[in-house]
Amino acid sequence: MTTEGDFFNKYDDIFDNAHYFVFIYTLDGKIMKANEVMLNAFGYNYDEVVNKTFAKFLFREEQLKKALAMIKNLKKTGEMSGANIYEAKKKDGTSLHVELFGIPLRQNNQIKAVLAIGHDITDLIVAERKLEEEKEKFETIAEQSGAGILILQDDVIKYSNKRFSEISGYSLDIMKYWTAGEMFQIVHQDDRKKVIEQATRKQQGATTDVLDQYEFRGIRKDGKEKWLEIHSKSINYENEPADLVFLLDITERKLTEERIKKAYIREEFYKDLFAHDMNNILQNLVLLIDLEEIEEQNREKSNFKTKFLLSIRKQISRASSLVKNVKIFSEIDNTDINLKKINILNFLGEAVNKINKSTRNKNIKIDIISEKKDYIIAADDFIQYVFENLFYNSITFNDNLEVKIEIKLSIINEKNHGVLKLEFHDNGRGIPDSKKKSIFLRGFLEDRTVSGLGLGLSLVKVILDRYNATIQVEDNKIEGKSKGSNFIIKFPIEAN
Amino acid sequence: MASIFIVEDDEDLRLLYARALRNKGYDVMGVAIDGKDAVEKYKQLDHKPDVILLDYRMPIKNGYDAAKEILEIEKKANIILTSADRTALGMFKSIGITSVLKKPFSFIKLYESIEASLNSKHFN
After folding, report:
1. pLDDT value at A302 more than 60
2. Are A483 and B90 in contact (CB under 8 A)?
3. Residue A177 CB neighbours (<10 A)
4. pLDDT category of residue B36 using cuts at 50, 70 and 90
5. Which of A291, A434, A450 sits opposite B16 (nearest CB)?
6. Which of the 8 DSSP states describes residue A276?
7. What is the enclosing helix (H) or strand (E) of A489?
8. Burial degree of B57 (CB within 10 A; 0-12, 13-18, 19+)
9. Residues B101/B74, Cβ–Cβ less than 8 Å
10. Per DSSP, which regions of A285-374 are E strands?
11. With a CB-CB cutoff of 8 Å, which residues 44-83 of chain B face chain A?
12. Which residues of A touch B60 (CB under 8 A)?
């Protein structure tokens, strides 16, 4: 016959040697035995525990309910569920988180008590709670952030915030299902290699050849280009290296930088105009007057006066043309592009009439060779200055007794698009190869090597840019020999 | 009479300088239309000019870069800078060019400047 004491005492070996909490409780919740490890952890002595119900050691009512439900289930099924976690109460009133496993103890096939084995998991629970709080804090900050935030691991987005979705144009739901590398579709093709290289190194946790910050172009879902600034670093995410990325939309900043740069170049250009062009005109006038005084005594006064006055008039015309072109430059800067369909032949005809009237004392022959009556392009009224400046250029830089200008219009096919090709041939001095490209660029480059080049052809270029038209200059060939220039302008064609 | 080499991108000015200097009896031994042209022509000259009249703001190559290259070829080259750009003066001074004619200048100033430059050359 086994007494109750014998029944419980047969587990003494376990009680004495275990490094875990070990105790036995009956099905009415009374603790019958407890080992030293448990007593020490709770801060009680043996008598304060034994023969007491475990209700005394549990925090809050819901913990007790949980324990009672477990016993009820044991009575009903004869089985214990797996591990259970309880928040227990120590003698000093502080809490202790324990993980318990129960083994039913049977006598005569009847469950008489439960042998409970457990351990203190307070540190783990506190750490988990802290982690949860940190995660919540991160997500709150991330969702409020003006920066797009994402965590990239194995080229897959593990986390992204709402702002990232706004920047990319893709919904968070879609991005969640992107496969490895698919996210790089939001990077502009020209910058993709660099971005992938950096992302790969960060995801590998590399510390060399990594850039904490750089700029690249992104492509939104709607195809629009955005300038983005990336700040990123390697982190540990779910025990593996990952890339934590902050993305700032800097498109506005970039546009402003562009505008400031353009304004700086334009300021330098105006300074150059006054320091160079205007002063050269004044220098010409000063020297002409000086020369008139010096040579007056030695020449036929009337003849010299005529030549002198012509030279003065030329310088005044040069100054007037310069001022006019500066004014047009300024107007173009301040006029929105609003194109209409025009027949280019009408504007060309008007420009020819104007040039004939203003140069009556010169022998000028202008031929227009055209197969059609209408050549419709998208342009605005600024186009008249394109022709005026080309005529001015051909007439001014021409040493022939007869200035010859031939304008040929034709429709050609370029990259499967119809293009109006306008060739402007003259018999002037031509343009040296070294100046053929830069002659159109004054006022657009920081480079001062374009200083002193005429302003008219740069104005022509800026007007043509409005129409997506191009211009280039070649040597004009007459009977196989280079003589003069051939300006070739190509306009996109508009349907009639 | 002293020989002069004119470097100026403004064609009208080139003609006026040449005419006025010839009137005064100088030998205008050559003209260049920009800095690049100036260096190339200067290299070809068997007899180097007594004075180089050099503009600063010119296309292709400016007067400062041309002056540096000319001084590398002939360190005693006598250069007079013609410019309206005050910011250029310091740059030219740093390579030893102190003769400056600030545009717009008169013929009297031009002659005086050439003569002063020639005297300083003889003195040196």
Report:
1. no
2. no
3. 9
4. very high
5. A291
6. I
7. strand A481-492
8. buried
9. no
10. 340-343, 363-370
11. 57-62, 83
12. 434-435, 438, 449
User: Residue A184 corresponds to which tokens in the numbers above?
Assistant: 């790089």
H helix and E strand count, chain A: 15, 17
Enter the tokens of residue A477. 């060939």
- The predicted-structure confidence for A143-202, as pLDDT tens digits, reads as follows 888 899 999 898 888 989 999 999 999 998 888 888 878 889 999 999 999 999 998 888
Selected residues 80-109 of chain B with any CB under 8 Å from a CB in chain A? 83-85, 103-108
Angle of helix A456-466 versus helix A301-333 axis, rounded to 10: 30
Structure tokens at A45: 């002595």
CA distance A199 to A242: 9
**Nearest CA among A470, A475, A464, A465 for reference residue A427:** A475
Taking contacts as CB-CB distances below 8 angstroms, the residues of chain B near A272 are 57
DSSP E strands in A154-209: the ranges are 156-160
Q: What is the pLDDT of residues B61-82, one digit of tens each?
A: 999 999 999 999 999 999 999 9
**Which amino acid belongs to residue A47?**
D
The separation between the first and the last C-alpha atoms of chain A, rounded to the nearest angstrom, is 116
Interatomic CA distance for residues A325 and A356, integer angstroms? 20
Which residue in B7, B12, B14 has the most chain A C-beta atoms within 10 A of its own C-beta, making it the best mutation to test that interface? B12
Kindly report whether the peptide bond that precedes residue B104 is cis, defined as omega within 30 degrees of 0.
yes
Gap between the Cα atoms of A279 and A283, Å rounded: 6
pTM of the model: 0.54
- The H-assigned helical ranges of chain B are 11-23, 35-44, 63-73, 86-94, 107-123
Look at A448 and B9 and tell me if their CB atoms are within 8 Å.
Answer: no
Tokens 């469950």: give the residue: A111
| Cα(B105)–Cα(A283) distance, integer angstroms | 7
A44's tokens: 């009680």
Name the token pair of A136.
């919540």
Q: How far apart are the first and last CA of chain B?
A: 19
